[in-house]
Amino acid sequence: MVKPTLLFLTGRLAESALRRQVEELAETASFIPLIEVMPISVAALMPADWIGRRLKTLPQGIHKVIIPGHVRGDIDALSLQWNVPVERGPVDFRDLPQHFGLVRQRPTHYGQHNIEILAEINHAPRLSLAQILDQANRYRASGADRIDLGCDPGGPWPGVADAVQALCSEGHKVSIDSFHPDEVASAVKAGADLVLSVNSTNRHFALNWGVQVVAIPDVPEDLESLIQTRQFLLDHKIPFRLDPILEPIGHGLMASLERYAHVRRLFPDDPVMMGIGNVSELTDVDSAGINTMLIGICAELGVQSILTTEVIGWARSSVKEIDLARRLMHYSINQKQVPKYMEPQLVMLRDPRTHEHGPEGLAQLQSTIRDPNWRLFAENHQLIALNHENSLSETDPFELFAKMNVKEPSHAFYLGYELAKAKTAITLGKWYRQDQALNWGFLTEPEKSHWDGKTSTKSNNDKDQPE
């Protein structure tokens, strides 16, 4: 089989590093590499039409052209001009292995799940109808399957029926979280089809509701009371889910998990629910890791539904975290694979890997720069700034900025913003790439490129600018 010849376009600044990268990739990805260095330092500044004017024809035998991901404009016009396919590569050439499929990819059937997410609106009676609908719609957009209306003690809530009807009219499934029988009856009549919760004190009211209920023990450690309530519901043909109650850390977390396991052994075919807010909301740590671990436990135990909240700041993206985690854990358990390298959106605080040029690579980069624009790097706990005359490094962004001697206000603002990102990356162990957003998993907000006009300290006559 003949290997295709691929032509990579780049600028002067990235030439050496790109050449090393594609030479390493060529054998594994089975292609013959060629590199065309365009007359510009930063490849990201190249518009497609400028490339076409500068590179009118290609060498013979090229099968495909790979251009940097930042290139703007109509690349189809380049393909017509050169009569070969043209595609955008990654924004950073160090991501070329992923571009060629050499990094582990998620299988096409990834994403299935069998856990329902109930997202609770806490203290719903204290909110306006508009606030309830807004929160419910945000929960649904994050992956919630059902909206749980959390009621306050001392009800009934006069507006419960209106809230349930409004939610149902917008296509939400609704559960009611209350022990007040009149409150529950109004909600059920309005369209709620699940009641949280019943035990020996109120299970007799379920005879009149005609909907599924969540059965809980009278007190968390009294598993026998849960079994008795289950039997009552079975005898009266009332559909139910069992919830042995997850306890917070320091109040019997492990014992409560053992109860879930025991219930699953006793009743292998019963639907089971777990409310995980008692751990995610009541532990001083970002919720993503806790939610992911608890969903893994639920997946192994066959827990089919979970109840979550988003009250405290560190848990305010719990619904989305659980939505991603349930897909990850479903695949992991069914395929008997560890849940690694499958769901990058859940890796938020720190990056799984970073890339560094190293001292020699940075020195080589600096030797190729022909203009006064600053290139910023974050490596080996150092903030580094390079241009055609300087190679600066400091641990303190203020000290580095002082050495850079930047006077133009918008340029100073841009560099200050970038240095703040670089310092954050060093602090957390993230990969910093100038003019790109730090990777915060599913919380990442893409950034618009600000190379044009923001990083430049050159005159309008500088030949390195695209025409």
Detailed description of the structure:
The protein is of the alpha/beta class and 467 residues long. The chain has 3 domains: 5-99, 3-Layer(aba) Sandwich (Rossmann fold); 116-343, TIM Barrel (Alpha-Beta Barrel), CATH 3.20.20; 358-454, no CATH class. It is 37% helix and 14% strand. The chain is built from 16 helices and 15 strands. It has helices at 15-29, 48-54, 75-82, 96-99, 129-142, 160-169, 181-190, 223-235, 253-266, 277-280, 287-301, 318-335, 358-368, 397-404, 409-428, 451-454, and strands at residues 5-10, 32-37, 64-67, 86-88, 116-121, 146-150, 174-177, 194-198, 212-215, 240-242, 273-275, 305-308, 375-379, 382-386, 391-394. The strands form 3 sheets. Strands 10-9-8-7-6-5-12-11 form an 8-stranded parallel sheet. A hairpin with a 2-residue loop joins β13 and β14 (382-386). α6 (160-169) runs parallel beside α7 and α11 (287-301) crosses α12 (318-335). The longest helix is centred in the last third of the chain and has 20 residues, at 409-428.
